[in-house]
Amino acid sequence: MTADSRTTVHGGAAELVLMWGGFPLVGAGAGWLLAAGAGWVADLPWAPLQGLFEALSRLPEPHVTVGTTAVGAVAGLVLAGVGTAERLTVTVDRERAALRCDGRRQEVPRRDVRVVLLDGRDLVLLDADGGELARERSDLDADRLRSAFRAHGWPWSDEDPYRGAFRLWVPDLPGLPAGADPLLRARARAVERNRHGDARELRRELGRLGVVVRDEERRQYWRLTARAVRPDADQPPMVETDPR
């Protein structure tokens, strides 16, 4: 492997074919079923949205079927576009890793990274103090990611060396740096409302205070980095392991 070689990991062409071919077909099929079953559903006294189905059942054919099929196909194309934009692409060489997702590109120098790991579906890069340099949701194959980073000499770990330091966040929990609790409250609301951009920005703000956050079933878990100002001496210890 030459010094300037690099490895790129992405979903591949098959994933794009599935999204751009499959999603519109599924959407068109759903639109056709909507038109075909509108009259039957409108006759069910317990069915929701009966006004919509009654209106559809009164529209002339083939206009209603063509219209709902077209709308379904367009909705599938929109979903395919969103899925394509949100795909994570990872490019690694011996000097840096580039992560591109949802129109954002982040480069992380190798010298700043202590460990690389998968936390559930998230690709995470940590620094020497246990802080997060990057965290991106990934549907990429774990073996391909592991091989790409290890091939270029990056310190990959199959488990989070700080996993035991995380604590479940509850409001007004002692032990957090000043200002962290309001940020965690705001982030909990953002996660609950699926405001992913706000949740990402609040994660960055917490990182500046030395607080690392991970999500599990819409619950927030937190730990402190070595840079954090610890308000008491009762913090769980940072678990140190050597990633291999």
What does this structure look like?
This protein has 244 residues and is of the alpha+beta class. It is built from six helices and ten strands; from the N terminus they run E-H-H-H-E-E-E-E-E-E-H-E-H-H-E-E. It is flat, with a radius of gyration of 24 Å.
Structure described in brief:
The chain has about 240 residues and is of the alpha+beta class.
Q: Average pLDDT value?
A: 84
Strand order of the largest sheet: 1-2-3-4
Strand content: 15-25%
Number of helices: 6
- SS-based class: alpha+beta
Give the SSE order as H and E letters. EHHHEEEEEEHEHHEE
Let me know the largest β-sheet.
4 strands, antiparallel
- The N- to C-terminal Cα distance equals 20 Å
Low-confidence stretches: 233-241
Task: Supply Rg.
Answer: 24 Å
Helicity, in percent? 40-55%
Overall strand count? 10
Which word captures the global form? flat
